[in-house]
Amino acid sequence: MIFFIIVFIFALAAGGLCFFLGWQKPVNEGRIVVLKVESGMSASQIAQLLEEKGIIRSARVFLAQTKARGMENALQAGEYELISGMTEQSILEKMASGDVRTVKFTIPEGFNVKEIAALLAKNGLAGADEFLAAAKDYTPYEYMKTGSRLIEYKSEGFLFPSTYSVSASAGGKAILAMLVREFDQQLTKDMREKLRKKNMSVRDFVTLASLVEKEAAVAEDRKFIAKAFLKRLDIDMPLQSCATIQYILGYPKPELTIADTKLPSEYNTYLHYGLPPGPIANPGLLSMQSVLNPAKEDYLYFVAQKNGQHIFSYTYDEHLQAIEKASR
Questions:
Q1: Coil, strand, or helix at residue 187?
Q2: For 102-142, what is each residue's pLDDT tens digit?
């Protein structure tokens, strides 16, 4: 009788040990699970979520280890890519270090704010409306500020085109801040000094660079287009940039008409002299450098050929001949 009692007690003890170790609930190991830890969640809530998702066997064991390691307040919010069957220690280390799931995306040169918003939404990184709402008045640097009511998105032009890797749960505001911060880092001390010597504001510089970006399809054309625009500004000639008309239309039209060049808008550089109110896109580094270091040739006119490359001319008569050649 005593023997059976001892066996029974041992069985109970073993069962309790198994429960503590989390062996009572099988886990389908090796399954990848994306877990989102919301800001403000307690260690207990995280433990419960891990168990519900089938990543760990026991929330109680996970919470006990968290407390034993003094990491109750160290677990960071974010999206984590976890594997069912991971040890509690591995999960704790991952969450304490903020090793969140990241998404890689590329912003092409010449994308405008709306195109960037659509790109982020497509990648599941941020809602387009959220991003656009943030871009309307986000001007953390003094050179971004403007009192013009004609500019819909004050961040336009200052979102640096590049490849980025961000937390999958970063959100539109955080991504916007990152893009603007990258632009500020790309705007080197040397570039700022050149702008100072040219007596050109950063906003005007970016606006002109955005025109160059949208006009040029071939890299080597940029410095010549920049020079032509700068010369037109110097002689008080309308910039007559087709890119500004495309911006007004809101979509890429293969061939513009005379009527298009008469659209009533402050961005219409056929009707208004000088630069448009603000950037029409987000220029890349090459276009910005082209404005700072334009070609030496004093071309005043240019026309795109079917292959995208431009023909540059000094005089209007030469330009008419170039138009005829480009249309063949």
A1: coil
A2: 889 999 999 999 999 999 999 989 999 999 999 999 999 99
